[in-house]
Amino acid sequence: MSPPWANLAGMAIGGPLYGVYFVLYVSSTYLLVRRSAGAHAGPLYRSVIFIAGLVLFLAVTANFFLSVIRPFLGFIGHPAAPGAFFDDNSQITTTVQNIFASLAVLISDGIIIYRLWVVWGRNKYVIVLPCLTLLGLLIALILTVETTTHVDDISLDKGLTPGLVFTLTTNLYSTGFISWKIWHITKASSSVTGSNLRDLLTIIVESAAIYTVWAVFYIVTHQINSNVQFIALIPLPSVAGIANALIQSRIGLGKAIERTVPSGRSYSVSNSSNPPPLRFTTNGPQGNEATAIGRSDLTELKPMSL
């Protein structure tokens, strides 16, 4: 498959995926705004999840816009030799698109690291590895953007494969630890609230699996130097956006169970239409704390003194 047709195929696949992401993002934003009007919710402009999601949406949208514009520039602006246009990585549209794609991947990884930090009671040690892989990803993406402006053969770009390995490591590590923490805290009442818990874990795992599988698809096609890699690369930011929007949609729906685990380990389940967030206690230097997880992610899940 030639680069022009691979770019067209990437746009054809990326269009519906961006449409899915757009619907999920708008829906989750509406739900978050509605929940922010609650008495216990903080303002949206102070929510890391909301702000990061907004920047991610802008980056993914800009990337998709350029993925639509570039085929027109190639086939209409260079009808005699569209292949030369798509092979020319010095094109300003290529550089800008690479920048927005890199920004989308970085923000997506940053969001999941932040979520990991919150769920683990703001434990800074648990995020050491993903922070290092995020730093490695940043360096690899800078090298990629800089290198692709000077080489025509994308296989010569040595930053792409390490960058994808870093982002895979970040997502696998963070998703695994988030899922384990929630399961460990709530396993005592799984017989009562198992279905809701399974729904939450399913969304966490499946949303990460979507991005992971797509990233592996890109790594394989890049390693064999196939032009099919453009089909995987162009929609990649949209897939990253979907992975995060699925979680944010779940948060906005407010379907989390409420479980308070004080020192006496008593449990309660709320069946109200707008239940409070899931909470658990940890013993820290300042005494017992209850940390809200789940739907209160909108308010950045700040610890609350009991």
Automatic annotation (TrEMBL):
<feature type="compositionally biased region" description="Low complexity">
    <location>
        <begin position="264"/>
        <end position="273"/>
    </location>
</feature>
<feature type="transmembrane region" description="Helical">
    <location>
        <begin position="99"/>
        <end position="118"/>
    </location>
</feature>
<feature type="transmembrane region" description="Helical">
    <location>
        <begin position="12"/>
        <end position="32"/>
    </location>
</feature>
<keyword id="KW-0812">Transmembrane</keyword>
<protein>
    <submittedName>
        <fullName>Uncharacterized protein</fullName>
    </submittedName>
</protein>
<feature type="compositionally biased region" description="Polar residues">
    <location>
        <begin position="280"/>
        <end position="289"/>
    </location>
</feature>
<feature type="transmembrane region" description="Helical">
    <location>
        <begin position="163"/>
        <end position="180"/>
    </location>
</feature>
<feature type="transmembrane region" description="Helical">
    <location>
        <begin position="200"/>
        <end position="221"/>
    </location>
</feature>
<feature type="transmembrane region" description="Helical">
    <location>
        <begin position="125"/>
        <end position="143"/>
    </location>
</feature>
<feature type="region of interest" description="Disordered">
    <location>
        <begin position="264"/>
        <end position="291"/>
    </location>
</feature>
<keyword id="KW-0472">Membrane</keyword>
<feature type="transmembrane region" description="Helical">
    <location>
        <begin position="227"/>
        <end position="247"/>
    </location>
</feature>
<feature type="transmembrane region" description="Helical">
    <location>
        <begin position="44"/>
        <end position="66"/>
    </location>
</feature>
<keyword id="KW-1133">Transmembrane helix</keyword>
